[in-house]
Amino acid sequence: METTLQLTIDCADPRRLVEFWSEALGYVPEPAPGGHATWREYWAAMGVPEEELPPGAGESPESIVDPAGQGPRVWFQQVPEQKTAKNRVHLDLKVGGGRDVPLAVRTQRVSATVERLVAAGAGVLRIMDEPDMEYYAAVLHDPEGNEFCVV
Prior knowledge:
By secondary structure, the protein is α/β, with parallel strands linked by helices. The chain has helices at 14-25, 39-45, 103-119; strands spanning 6-11, 28-29, 63-65, 73-78, 91-93, 123-130, 135-141, 147-150. The protein has a four-stranded mixed beta sheet, covered by helices on one side.
């Protein structure tokens, strides 16, 4: 049996994170399957009882997919509790090109991505600028406080 990977991110507002992470990853909101207008409509057709669905669940996409079909599906699962501690797992957005690319070029690529994501709702936690180590990266958080790195 084949194993596939889905990344699930707990959140308060799936719609907001679908918008942000679509921009961050170059993904697209996942349409409801089978010609259904919404995921809620799809779930109802599958027999999911209405009482199992929170108000508003599935009315807009709650997951994103890689349009090239290579990256994992990302599902933003609405949960009642707020984030209270540092993530134990985080994403690294590798945009710099690796150590074979000159530091100045990597720095420009990381900085441009950080600027784009801040405009989309991210916040900068810190810049890791280690010129003596030939390293430049940024630690950001998404609109709900989930940390990630741009490297």
